[in-house]
Specification:
Number of helices: 1
Strand content: under 5%
Radius of gyration: 38 Å
Helix content: 40-55%
Length: 95
């Protein structure tokens, strides 16, 4: 069951000699073609707009996450109140 499925290798492979290194003439490095895309120029006004937009995004995202956490907390509290009420009703019916 645990025997190998290939024949064992009793002989080691013959050592090979590396080919001698022959330096060749250095090939010229091609220069990169000029890009047609314009570079982005950030003016003080655009940087201010970018910072204000980032701040507004952080505030909106924080408000959404806090409201979701508040919704979960309110739901958990209401489920707990319902559980206590049902338990109280079931306990009073047994007498």
């Amino acid at each position: 069951m645990f025997t190998p499925k290939y024949p064992p290798q009793d002989t080691a492979p013959a050592p090979t000699t590396p080919a001698p290194y022959a330096p060749s003439a250095a090939a010229p490095v091609p220069s990169a073609p000029a890009s047609n895309r314009p570079t982005v120029q950030l003016t003080p006004g655009s940087m201010l707009t970018l910072a204000a937009g980032g701040g507004a995004l952080v505030l909106v995202l924080g408000a959404v996450l806090v409201s979701m956490l508040l919704a979960v907390a309110i739901t958990a509290a209401s489920v707990a109140v319902c559980a206590v009420t049902v338990r109280s009703i079931l306990k009073s019916d047994r007498r």
